[in-house]
Amino acid sequence: MAADDVARGRVRRPQLHAAVGQLMAAVLGDLAAGDGVPVFATVPDFGEWHRHGQESFVAIRRGAWQVPGRVTDYRFLDTFAEIGAVRTVVAADEVLRAGGLPGRGGVRAHAPAIGVDAG
Predict the structure, then answer these.
(1) pLDDT band at residue 102 using 50, 70 and 90 as cut-offs
(2) Tell me: the pLDDT tens digits for 40-98?
(3) Alpha-carbon torsion 56, 59, 64, 67, what sign?
(4) What are the b/e assignments for 3-12, b being 16+ CB within 10 Å?
(5) pLDDT at position 32, please?
(6) Helix axes 83-92, 14-35, angle to 10 degrees
(7) What's the burial of 107, exposed, middle or buried (CB within 10 Å: 0-12/13-18/19+)?
(8) Do residues 100 and 72 make contact, with C-beta atoms less than 8 angstroms apart?
(9) What angle do CA 27, 32, 35 make, to 5 degrees?
């Protein structure tokens, strides 16, 4: 890793940044074309349950994005050709391919989600 690749303690990966940027542009463009404007609603926030006596209370989260069902499928990003470039960049990066930076949790847990052999 070259010294130029490190800035303020963070490793820069411009190729990965560019590939992910292209993927996200494709994803957001597809969502805009297929689903129109985002839908926001008030929903229960099950992460904030509180109990008082015999009655249950739940927090309400206003302005929550109603995620289209297809986005929740773990294979959603596979429907975009741009994911190939992301996989290629990750596979070519010695640190990402090996599981990430020591002490930073790495990417090993996320590797299967983007189709990279974490072994």
Answers:
(1) low
(2) 988 877 776 655 556 666 677 888 888 888 999 999 999 999 999 999 999 998 888 77
(3) negative
(4) eeeeeeeeee
(5) 92
(6) 160
(7) buried
(8) no
(9) 105
